[in-house]
Amino acid sequence: xxxxxxxxxxxxxxxxxxxxxxxxxxxxxxxxxxxxxxxxxxxxxxxxxxxxxxxxxxxxxxxxxxxxxxxxxxxxxxxxxxxxxxxxxxxxxxxxxxxxxxxxxxxxxxxxxxxxxxxxxxxxxxxxxxxxxxxxxxxxxxxxxxxxxxxxxxxxxxxxxxxxxxxxxxxxxxxxxxxxxxxxxxxxxxxxxxxxxxxxxxxxxxxxxxxxxxxxxxxxxxxxxxxxxxxxxxxxxxxxxxxxxxxxxx
Length: 250
Ligand code: DG2
Prior knowledge:
This protein has 7 helices and 6 strands, in the order E-H-H-E-H-E-H-H-E-H-E-E-H. It is of the alpha/beta class. It is globular. The chain binds (2R)-2,3-diphosphoglyceric acid. (2R)-2,3-diphosphoglyceric acid binds next to helix 6.
């Protein structure tokens, strides 16, 4: 019974994670802390003997650079890579560029958590002329306008992510390749929801820490051998998950 090996990696701390701003599709870079987290993620892969054969990333710099730094430190910088907008972070709509703490103070706990963690309530759409809009970004020029998001809830992310999962990632797993997916807090929540069959309500309580590889071993039906997978540094993951949960609340 050979198990497929899938590694999920949220990017290291970004500039806007540090500043406490909603990011979504805005293409911010890593902080120095984020770079160090990424390199450490690669060392955790080496120590666990989990060496990726292929990489899938979003089209966003923080995930692309995290993967490169992690793979560099694991001596796997040379593996093939595919990238897709379908692994991008959830588009945060009109919240993109807004301060999380200020949004919580202005709209209150219930609305704040509805926007951050409800399965099917998207924030208001982002106007095309907003400074944080991506409508004119050349990397999305090939996307038909009607599927280019102006806001997304997690349900929207599940729906646009799953075709890439089945068409691009699953074939790599079925070919026996250890597969690294470098993406984002909410695009990885969407994938974990699918893998573990988490309900629409329960997914609200799941948070993904930055920079710590999460290993899933999957059976032939792509079901996790261990529900929830296994963080390669479980103690650091537990602390970092609390920090994500409490964002905007310092
Ligand atoms: C964060 C997630 O995305 O924020 O868009 O602000 O993973 O790309 O840093 P990431 C953002 P929360 O949904 O956890 O507030």
